[in-house]
Amino acid sequence: MTNLHGFRKYGDSWTKMDETDLHAYLGLLILAGVYRSRGEAAASLWDAENGRPIFRATMPLKLFHTYSRLLRFDDRESRPARRVTDKLAAIRDVWDKWVERLPYLYNPGPDVTVDEQLVPFRGRCPFRQYMPSKPAKYGIKSWVACDAKSSYAWKMQIYTGKPTSGSPEKKQGMRVVLDVTEGLRGHNVTCDNFFTSYELGQQLLKRKITMVGTVRKNKPELPPALLASKEREVLSSKFAFTPTTTLVSYLPKKNKNVLLLSTLHRDGVISDRGDRKPVIILDYNRNKGGVDNLDKVIGAYSCRRMTAHWPLVIFHNIIDVSSYNAFVIWRETNPNWMSRKYNKRRLFLEQLGKALVTPLIERRKQIPRTEASAAVVKAIQNAGAPDQPEDPATTATSPARPSKRKRCQFCPQKKDCKTYTVCCKCKKYICRSCTLPYCPTCAK
Hints:
Layout: E1 7-10, E2 13-16, H1 19-34, H2 42-45, H3 53-58, H4 61-70, H5 79-83, H6 92-101, E3 111-120, E4 129-130, E5 138-147, E6 153-158, H7 172-180, E7 188-191, H8 198-206, E8 210-214, H9 224-227, E9 237-241, E10 246-253, E11 256-262, H10 279-287, H11 290-300, H12 310-333, H13 344-362, H14 371-384, H15 392-397, E12 406-407, E13 418-419, H16 440-443
Parallel strand pairs: 3-7, 7-8
Antiparallel strand pairs: 1-2, 3-5, 4-5, 5-6, 8-11, 9-10, 10-11, 12-13
Helix pairs in contact: 1-13
C-alpha cells in the first residue's frame, strides 16, 4: 500500500498522508461496513447525536472527505501514456501487488471454484459491464478463483473489455481458468458453462488439475446422443466416456437436459436419492457456490461508499476481499476463537477497524467537542499512556464504569434494580439510591 498517494491540508500548507492516517482511513471504512452504513451518508456517521462516537474520535468529517477525494494510486502525470495500452493504469500497480500476495497467504483445499464477480458501479468507466443476470446489473467484472469451502479469494483478475487491438478474444474462458489456476497442483476446479470445454479439461490435466463443470450445448465435441432429450425418461442419465473425460446428460424435467463434463470421475455412478442425480452433478452442486458465497459475505459488511471514480470502487473491493481473507486465515489458525459466537466475522471486523484507528486517536491532540467522542479519545489515550499513580481523593469519589449492567447487590432481589456503577473498593454493583456521597476529605 506504499503506492497510495494522498494529502491533507493544515492551514495554507499541504502535508502528505502518512501510514497512520491511511490505516485510520481504512479502519473507518471497515467500521462503516460493520455498522451496515453502505447507503448512509457520511455526515450521519459523524452526527453529534445519532452518529457513532468512534468516527468523530478518529478524525473530522472534513478530513475524511478530503482523503476520499484526493486518494490516488499512481502518478497522475504519466497516466495518459500508460492508459494507451492499459485501461487499468490508474490502479494497476496497487492491484498487481495485492493480487500477487493473495496465493502466498493461504493454501486452498482440494476443491477450487472459478467464477465471475461483479462489483456494482454505474459511473463512467471504460470497461464497465452489463450483466442482466446479476443483481447490480452494471459494474466492474472480475474473474475469481477461490477455495470452494472457505471462499478465500486465492487469485483475481479484472476484465477490462476487448483488447486495445479491437478484435475479440478467442477462447477467453479457457485462458481465464488457466491464468487464475496457475500454481495449483492436485486440485479440482469447478466452473460453469462459460469456461468448460474439452480442450480446457485436457490442458488442466497436464497441470495435474481435474475439472467439473456444466457444458453449453453448442460445443462441437458433444455427441448427438447426449443432446437429444425427447422421448427420454424423466430423471434419467446418459453417459459418454473417453480415457480421461466423462460426459453426462441428466433429464431433471421433460424435454430439458443438463450437460456436465468431468475429468475427475471415471464412471457413471448414480446416487440412490429420489431424484437419481449422478455423482458428478452432486459434486458440482457442492462446490459451485464458492465465488457466490464470497459475494454474499462481502456484501453483508461491505465498506463501499458512493463515488464517481472507478479506481476507488476497485480499492473498496480490495479492502472488502482483504478483510474477509484475513478473517478466514484468523479463523483457521485460531479455531477456538469465540467458538460460541454466531457473528464472528462482524466481531472480527469491528476489532480490526478499531485496531487500525487506535494509533491515530492516540496521537490526537485536539479533543472532539461531543462528550461521547471525547470519552473515546480519552479512554484510548489513557490506555496507551504509562500507568500514573492514582490520587486517592479522586479514585474514592469516582466509581468505576464497567461495560456490563448488573443487578444492584444491596437492593432486594425482587426490586431488580440494574446499574452500571460499581464500588471503587469492593467492586460490588450498587445503584444510585444505595450510594452515599462523600467529600474528598472524608473519603480518605
